[in-house]
């Protein structure tokens, strides 16, 4: 099947993200393909390619659709190829993701280094990058790896380095996103859209001092502060609150606590008839 051109991607997809493809070689489990689609979409990518899947209809299997969980558009747009060479056709840099060390083959790197190298590659306008993952049981063959320019490893627990293929793809997609966001001109943190919360502004000294007086009254009301033997409780308490630079909301919260303490103390005090 012919790979999709860039116009097939969503209009809001950053161009640099549309030039990254994830290739699954000989996948056998529809659930892993569906999970892979979800992982790709979650990280802002859109290009999923399969090589010789065990089931020609794997993209339409109910388990694949269920585990895609809202990423059905990725499955609908995914391409199948008869060979890895076909799937890698337009790419300029391909990383073979594998858990095993290979004595012969392309130079190795870890997944974070791969993402950094990908960002440098994609700074070129016609460059395309591929992350290649093998079948669930045996991974990538040596022949598959020779078609790639780099071998890529996830630094997992050496005593148990086996990752589910969709989990490995999720990690790779995350590292790629983190490395590419600056090139896409996107932020790494959620945008508040310039909404300002006045309650988070620092409280004035006047408001803090009034709160401290109120807090001292509350400590007296509940019997925690002995006015005859205060020792250094009050200055230490004032120093503690002052150095923390309370916000306006925090001052209001503490004053509400003080009011509740004083009311509780009043209710607990026996009333003389």
UniProtKB/TrEMBL annotation:
Residue ranges constituting the tRNA/rRNA methyltransferase SpoU type domain according to the UniProt record: 20-173
Keyword S-adenosyl-L-methionine: yes
GO annotation terms (biological process): methylation
Pfam family, one: SpoU_methylase
CDD domains according to UniProt: SpoU-like_TrmJ
Keyword Methyltransferase (UniProt): yes
A molecular function GO annotation: methyltransferase activity
InterPro entries found in the cross-reference section: Alpha/beta_knot_MTases, RNA_MeTrfase_TrmJ/LasT, SpoU_MeTrfase, tRNA_m1G_MTases_N
Keywords: Methyltransferase, S-adenosyl-L-methionine, Transferase
Family label: Belongs to the class IV-like SAM-binding methyltransferase superfamily. RNA methyltransferase TrmH family.
Name assigned to this protein: RNA methyltransferase
């Amino acid at each position: 099947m012919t790979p999709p051109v860039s116009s097939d991607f969503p209009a809001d997809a950053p161009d640099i993200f549309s030039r990254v493809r994830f290739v699954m070689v000989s996948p056998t489990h529809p659930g892993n393909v569906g999970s892979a689609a979800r992982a790709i979409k979650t990280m802002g990518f859109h290009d999923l390619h399969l090589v010789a899947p065990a089931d020609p209809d794997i993209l339409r299997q109910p388990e694949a659709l269920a585990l895609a969980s809202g990423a059905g558009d990725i499955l609908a747009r995914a391409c199948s190829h008869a060979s890895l060479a076909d799937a890698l056709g337009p790419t300029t840099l391909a990383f073979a993701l594998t858990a095993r060390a290979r004595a012969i083959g392309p130079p190795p790197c870890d997944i974070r280094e791969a993402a950094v190298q990908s960002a440098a590659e994609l700074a070129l306008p016609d460059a395309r990058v591929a992350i290649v993952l093998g079948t669930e049981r045996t991974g990538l063959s040596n022949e598959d790896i020779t078609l790639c320019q780099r071998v890529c490893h996830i630094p997992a627990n050496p005593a148990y380095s086996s990752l589910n293929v969709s989990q490995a793809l999720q990690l790779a997609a995350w590292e790629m996103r983190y490395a590419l966001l600056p090139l896409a001109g996107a932020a790494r943190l959620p945008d508040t859209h310039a909404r300002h919360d006045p309650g988070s502004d620092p409280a004035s000294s006047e408001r803090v001092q009034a709160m401290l007086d109120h807090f001292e009254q509350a400590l007296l009301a509940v019997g925690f502060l002995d006015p005859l033997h205060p020792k250094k409780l009050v200055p230490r308490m004032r120093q503690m609150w002052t150095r923390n630079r309370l916000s306006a909301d925090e001052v209001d919260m503490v004053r509400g606590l003080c009011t509740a303490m004083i009311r509780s103390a009043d209710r607990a005090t026996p009333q003389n008839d």
